[in-house]
Design a protein that fits this description.
alpha+beta; Aminopeptidase; 3 helices; about 25% helix; seven-stranded mixed sheet
């Protein structure tokens, strides 16, 4: 219902390819959720979706979170692949993390000039001013 919140579905002809859910602010677009249909993964649709977001929000940092690289995690290899995918698509590790309900996530962005203050502002707006998410520096 808010004008800066976007939930988009992506299709190639009639085939469902993926979804994104994001919030756009003056300087930053924060991707809360991005998923590609399992049936079309590894066919370039994730990269195409990211390219669409970069074009649509040109001039803004596109920022997102991914699970941290925890070697003891059951899906460690998937986490490594995910980080490699985003780096291949022009994302940088900001050296910041978010902790949400005990889970820690890496923060990635499309600009090497990431502003943690802008990010904090975006998160405060998302959580209606509540400090539900903790931002910290990466340990690695």
């Amino acid at each position: 219902m808010k004008k800066n919140v976007h939930f988009w579905a992506y299709y190639q002809n009639d085939e469902f390819c993926g979804v994104s859910y994001l919030v756009s602010h003056e300087e930053m677009t924060f991707v809360l959720y991005l998923a590609v249909n399992n049936q079309v993964q590894s066919k370039g649709y994730g990269s195409a979706i990211l390219e669409t977001l970069k074009e649509k929000f040109s001039g803004k940092n596109i920022t997102l979170n991914i699970e941290r690289l925890d070697p003891s995690a059951d899906n460690y290899e998937q986490r490594v692949k995910r980080l490699k995918f985003y780096k291949k698509n022009g994302f940088y590790d900001t050296d910041y993390t978010i902790t949400d309900r005990g889970e820690t996530f890496l923060t990635l962005t499309t600009s090497p000039s990431f502003s943690v203050e802008v990010f904090k502002k975006v998160l405060r707006e998302l959580t209606l001013g509540l400090d539900l998410l903790k931002i910290g520096k990466s340990e690695s």
